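From the methods appendix. Each design record in this collection lists the tokenized structure first, followed by the designed amino acid sequence. Records were kept in a plain field format so they could be parsed without special tools. The example shown here is representative of the layout used throughout.

RECORD:
FOLD TOKENS (226 positions):
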């Protein structure tokens, strides 16, 4: 069946982003997946690959989301979702979790964002006291990881989430390496954003109109798999 923009339900958008993120992991990588959408990436990793997922609430060896009627309610990820653990998994306290995160032991971190700008700065929390996301462990993960990937919807209420300069409180300054949305993939380079992949349901003009930042189109631009 040929997809159209009308087919981009919330679930399909999550699937497109998570599948694309899963392609970024390499054999034996230790990866942390942030709360929400990023955790979906674990469900699309090639089962023949050895990827070790770490959860900031203290699990090394995280598996896929638990399915079926009989959940083990004692095993949850940082977002509170019931998850499986792989053979050899370990459990530890917050002190050890943050030692791993801050110590440069994480090969890749995937997290959501409210805004990302063309310099690679990220805002993923707002003013304390408001009913919005808090800081959590994002600051530690971002500065401590070897590679940082943002997984998020392209817009929020039709407003761009990729902007020229973040206007919300920063989580980290110039630390993002890659942005994946349901519409495209951007690499954050020293001279700004490069559009490297595009969902075939959208045009470059569509991306320009829904992005609040400047970017260049890569000479090797290719289509995203949807």
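DESIGN:
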């Amino acid at each position: 069946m040929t997809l159209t923009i009308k087919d981009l339900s919330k679930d399909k958008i999550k699937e497109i982003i998570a599948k694309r993120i899963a392609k970024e992991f390499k054999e034996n990588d230790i990866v942390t997946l942030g709360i929400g959408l990023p955790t979906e990436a674990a469900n699309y990793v090639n089962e023949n690959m050895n990827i070790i997922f770490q959860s900031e609430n203290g699990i090394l060896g995280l598996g896929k989301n638990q399915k079926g009627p009989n959940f083990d309610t004692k095993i949850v990820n940082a977002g509170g979702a019931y998850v499986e653990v792989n053979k050899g998994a370990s459990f530890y306290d917050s002190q050890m979790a943050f030692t791993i995160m801050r110590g440069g032991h994480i090969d890749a971190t995937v997290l959501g964002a409210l805004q990302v700008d063309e310099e690679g700065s990220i805002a993923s929390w707002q003013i304390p006291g408001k009913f919005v996301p808090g800081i959590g462990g994002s600051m530690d993960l971002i500065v401590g990881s070897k590679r940082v990937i943002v997984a998020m919807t392209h817009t929020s209420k039709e407003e761009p989430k990729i902007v020229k300069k973040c206007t919300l409180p920063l989580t980290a300054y110039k630390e993002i390496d890659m942005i994946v949305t349901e519409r495209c993939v951007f690499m954050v380079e020293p001279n700004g954003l490069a559009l490297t992949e595009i969902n075939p349901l959208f045009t470059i003009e569509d991306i320009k109109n829904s992005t609040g930042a400047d970017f260049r189109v890569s000479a090797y631009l290719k289509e995203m798999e949807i």
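APPENDIX NOTE: The longest helix spans residues 10-22.
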